[in-house]
Structure formats: structure tokens, C-alpha cells
Prior knowledge:
Elements: H1 2-16, E1 21-26, E2 30-35, E3 39-43, E4 58-62, H2 63-68, H3 70-80, E5 86-88, E6 93-96, H4 99-109, E7 119-125, E8 128-135, E9 139-140, E10 149-158, E11 163-165, H5 167-179, E12 183-189, E13 205-209, E14 214-218, E15 221-223, E16 234-237, E17 241-247
Amino acid sequence: MRESKKDIRHFIQLLSEHITIEEVNEHTDFFEVHTDRVTLFMYKPHTHRVEEVAGQDVIHLDYDQLLGARDKIINRLKGVHGQGERIYARSTVVARIDKQAAVEFQEEHHLQGALPGKYRYGLFNQGELVSVAVFSGGRIMWHLGPDFRSFELIRFCHKGDRLVIGGLSKLLKAFIKEFKPQDIMTYADRDWCQDTSSLETLGFEVVDTTAPQRFAVVGGQRFSRFTEEQVVDYYIENKGSLKLKLLL
């Protein structure tokens, strides 16, 4: 536990080089870090989520993430605070990309790792890939009619600390134009949002909230599927997800 305290303090020091931190409180199981935008709860191993204060913008960060995905977290927090390089979608070109390019991009820039999906789109700025969106194949929703096709947006991320203004909207429009879905659904991690999502500004509506998910940390890596025979360092239970749907 002593090492985890040291590691979290080091992460906070690195974060403070990019974002102004107003206050840091160390509790038994977690650090509570306040910025001008959000409250960050940074958890030591073998601990549980705290209850948020109503009206607070809160982000929950686990020890395994702070160690293994430090740069991704800092870049995402810079985006939350309006920092990083801003690119406007109107100056980018949208195009389909192959599986390898999409997976490599996600592995480098998406906090939850890569999923191949079935359809993959990228935004290019002066030839450089700066944003990626990955979609599932279509599902016929028979209870809504034989022609009702639903797709899932399963991954979206920018490159590093870039922030492409209007980027996801442009990617969605390209996908919708090509496949003409009746709806697109997706999930928003409630460790990074509570009851609302920025996706709602694009027309998505919250339709459900999923239960918290349990993970096992084994050798510093997080697994959603594990067996009782594995030597588990500790378990994590997140805040679940918001399920959102865009009707077209």
C-alpha cells in the first residue's frame, strides 16, 4: 500500500504539469483531487468506489490504470479541461480504414484498449490519422420491423491530446450516409460521467443504465473474464455504463 501511495502521488505531480490542481486530500483508500472542472477519485488497490456528491462532476480512476495507462489518462483529462491541440472537423477528411490501422490506433490512444469491430472510419488532418470510430455490424430488430437495422458505436478516440471539434459528428454522418441505419447505440463509461453524457449533444438519448462490472487485476493487468483458479491481485468494480441510442 505504501508503494501505491507513492505511485499515485507521482501521477498527481505529473498531472499538475498540465492541469491546475486546486486541492488534494488523501483518505485511507483513495486520493481526492480537485481541479476547476472535476473531482478525481484515485483509488489504491483493494478499495471500493465512493459515493459522489450530487451536482459534482466526478471521474473515478483505478490504480492499475494510473500505472499502465498514465499518458492516455492525462491526455483525456487535458481534453476534459479544454487543453491540447484543437483541430476542427471541417479541416479533416473522413475515410474508411482497415482493421490493422484501427486496432493500432486504439491500442495507442483508447483507455479501454482495442476492438476490431466490422466497420472502421478515420479522420485525417493533412494526411495524419487523428480520430477513429469503430462500428459493429447491423442487427435486425425484428420487434421493430424486418427492415429496422441497429448498429453499435463500439469505440471512438482522438490521437494523443488532440481534440477534433465536431469529429465524432462527422464520422457518424459518414457512417449513416453509407449504411443508413435506423438507430445507433453506444455505451458511456460512468466512471467518467454520471447520469448524462456529452453524446446527448449529438442527439443520443440515455435509454438505460447497466450494472457495475467486476474486473480482476492479475499481474497489473485488468481482465473482465477470469477464473477462480487465477492468482488475482485484487478486484475492481466500476460504476457501470450509460446505454445511449441515436434514432434516425
